[in-house]
Fold this sequence. Notes:
alpha+beta, two-stranded antiparallel sheet, 4 strands
Amino acid sequence: MQLSNGGTMVFAQIATGGTPASFAYTDEVQLRAAKATYMTPIEFNISALKAEDRIAEADGALLRTSIIIPVDLNMNNAGEWSVLQNGIKIWRLSIQSPDAIAVMLYYDRFFIPHGGQLFI
């Protein structure tokens, strides 16, 4: 789709529906999932970034929309594995950044094995 400003709109997510297997958890297992939380530290000065943005905007630059916070989270070093009664293995990870306005995910290496599903 061509936009009026000359840009192009692209859709990249394939929605297949479904319900996460973790929704079948008992209360006890839900409590264990709390260990799966990764707290993302904000290690930059937000006031300084806003000041930089004001200067850049005055010079006609595009507004900054995000800051990438590098992390190396994977199924071996973060999150929590559980096995449901029916044998389904699930891995859960909660990412929190209390001082952030929003959190977006950016992947540089990503693989879902055959039969696997991802719910965000």
